[in-house]
Fold this protein.
Amino acid sequence: MSPKMTATAIQKLKRRAKEIKKALGIKHSVALDQAAKEHGFNNWKDIESCYQNLTSSVSLLDIQNDLDSRFVRYREYVRTHASVSLVKPHITTGDIFHEVEIEGIRFAGGVSGNYPYILRRAGITGLMGDVQLGPCSIHLISETESLRAKPGYWICKYDKRQPRVYVGDLSEQGLVTLAHEFGILLPQEWVNKNVKISTFPTSMQRHLFYESPSFESLTQWCFAHPKEFESITGNSYLWDWPLRLSL
């Protein structure tokens, strides 16, 4: 029987695959399969399947516990359509608690004061930006709405009037994967079409972050930096996130 998979375990396996690739000089996909075999799986596809099955069972449990069904349906859609194979983890330092590369673009989660935020590294495109995690969501900004921003998809602070991080150069699957990785709400038109939800419950939006791989990394960062954590009191966007950790 294959072992259970968590987001943290998957990140560790990806780091192992990176080591294998460097040592053997093989393709990234082959190294992923090799890392999977070392941990009792037939290949990397088995790991993705195991992770999706695990998150599905969690969703059913949440429904039984009377969580908002719209939230559960949305979360299930994101988890089953995100691709963990697109995510390449990077080593973090300082106030950065989570850093990954998706389709060649690096995104980092950091802590500034009481605020967890997402940052896009400049890279070769020169595009960069940051925004607080929690209230942010992805929006499509058209040419007629782009007086201050490049047309395309953006992570916005509240709505499309406040674009902060350009993500229009990601594919659709890349956007879903980014949304899953950092707990960011996808464009409302996607939610309407794919999840059949006319309005996502605002009161539940911060929970997308709490159940994301980046929040797992933030938890680990807080354990590794207890003094910094002691000075954090929460904020108006994620007012209860420090209360979710017990160091």
Q: What stands out?
A: The two ends are 34 Å apart (CA to CA). Confidence is low (pLDDT under 50) at residues 58-66. Residues 37 and 43 are 6 Å apart (CA to CA). DSSP finds nine helices and eight strands in the chain.
